[in-house]
Write a structure and sequence with these properties.
By secondary structure, the protein is an alpha/beta fold. The chain has one domain: Alpha/Beta hydrolase fold, catalytic domain (Rossmann fold, 3-Layer(aba) Sandwich), CATH 3.40.50. It is built from 6 helices and 10 strands, in the order H-E-H-E-E-E-H-E-E-H-E-H-E-E-E-H. The chain is globular.
C-alpha cells in the first residue's frame, strides 16, 4: 500500500470538510423551523384586535394639509370620497418596510392605506420557516379572514369610495390577497408571492377573475418562492404569478433582477406600482 503524504492528508481533510458542510446545508434545508405562540383562530375578538391596531396612513389632502399616521381605531374625521389600499403585511408584522410603503402611497400617489396587524392577536402563532403545510394553511385562513374583516370595517368610513378599494399584500399577506374571491376590491397588488404550488401552500387557489386588474412583483431569485430555494425541490415553480395570470389582459408581472424577498420600496417597484394604480384608479 502506498502511504499518503502530507499533501494527500490535507486534500483528504478538505474533502471531508466539504462533505460535512454540504451535508449540513442539506439537513438545514429540511429541518423544521421554530414556532412560538398557539393562536390562529379568526374569532371576532381576534379580528377586532387586528383592526384596532391597524396602521392607517392618510395623505395630506385628506388630513388637513399634513399626512396623518396612527391606529385605525383613532381615525380622524375625513370629508369627501377617496380610494383606499387595504394592505396585508408579511410574517414579520407591520414592519418598517410596510409603513414606509404606506408613506410612499400617501406622499407620492395621494392614497390612503390601512394595514391590519395580525400580530396584535394575543399569543398569535409565529414561525420561522419551514413548518408543516397544515400550519401554513391555518395562517393563510386567518389572514384571509383578516382581509375580509378589514374590507368590511373600512367601508364603515364614510370617506372611503367602495368602488376604488385596492387590496395589497406582501409575502404571507399576499397569499390571502391572491386567494380572496369576493367582490370588495377593484384591483390587487401581490408582492413577493408567486401564486403557484410550492412548500408554502397545499395548493394556490387564486381567487381573482380572468380579467381582473392584478399587479405582481417578485424577485427573480426570491429566497423563498423561486426555484433556488431547496424547499421547492418537489415543485415545478417558476417563481412568479405569470402562470396564474396567463391570458389576463389587465395583469402586470414585474420580475425584479434581485435575490431579496422584501421589494416593496425599490424604486423600480414603486414606478411600476404607480403606473398600474394610475391606470386602475384614474385619479
Amino acid at each position: 500500500m502506498t502511504p499518503i503524504g502530507k499533501g494527500g492528508r490535507r486534500l483528504g481533510l478538505v474533502a471531508c470538510l466539504i462533505f460535512i458542510l454540504t451535508a449540513g446545508i442539506a439537513l438545514a434545508a429540511d429541518q423544521p423551523g421554530d414556532i412560538k405562540g398557539t393562536t390562529l383562530e379568526p374569532t371576532p375578538e381576534n379580528l377586532a384586535a387586528t383592526w384596532s391596531k391597524a396602521s392607517l396612513v392618510l395623505p395630506a389632502a385628506l388630513a388637513g394639509g399634513h399626512r396623518w399616521q396612527g391606529f385605525a381605531s383613532a381615525a380622524p374625521e375625513v370629508a369627501g370620497k377617496a380610494p383606499l389600499v387595504v394592505l396585508l403585511h408579511g410574517s414579520s408584522g407591520v414592519a418598517p418596510a410596510v409603513k414606509d410603503f404606506q408613506i410612499w402611497l400617501a406622499d407620492a400617489l395621494g392614497l390612503a392605506s390601512v394595514a391590519p396587524d395580525s400580530l396584535a392577536i394575543p399569543d398569535r402563532l409565529i414561525y420561522t420557516s419551514p413548518v408543516s403545510v397544515d400550519i401554513y394553511e391555518r395562517v393563510h385562513a386567518l389572514r384571509l379572514a383578516e382581509l375580509e374583516h378589514a374590507l368590511k370595517m373600512s367601508k364603515t368610513w364614510a370617506w372611503v369610495d367602495p368602488t376604488r378599494i385596492v387590496i395589497a399584500g406582501t409575502s404571507e399577506g399576499s397569499v390571502a390577497v391572491s386567494r380572496y374571491a369576493g367582490s370588495g376590491s377593484v384591483a390587487r397588488l401581490i408582492y413577493s408571492w408567486s401564486c403557484e404550488a410550492n412548500y408554502f401552500v397545499d395548493r394556490p387557489r387564486p381567487g381573482f377573475g380572468p380579467e381582473e386588474p392584478v399587479f405582481n412583483a417578485i424577485s427573480a431569485r426570491d429566497p423563498y418562492f423561486s426555484p433556488s430555494n431547496p424547499w421547492n425541490k418537489d415543485f415545478a415553480v417558476t417563481g412568479n404569478c405569470s402562470g396564474a395570470l396567463k391570458g389576463n389582459p389587465q395583469a402586470v408581472v414585474l420580475v425584479v433582477d434581485a435575490d431579496v424577498h422584501t421589494i416593496l420600496n425599490r424604486p423600480d417597484v414603486h414606478e411600476a406600482t404607480s403606473r398600474f394604480l394610475t391606470s386602475v384608479l384614474k385619479p
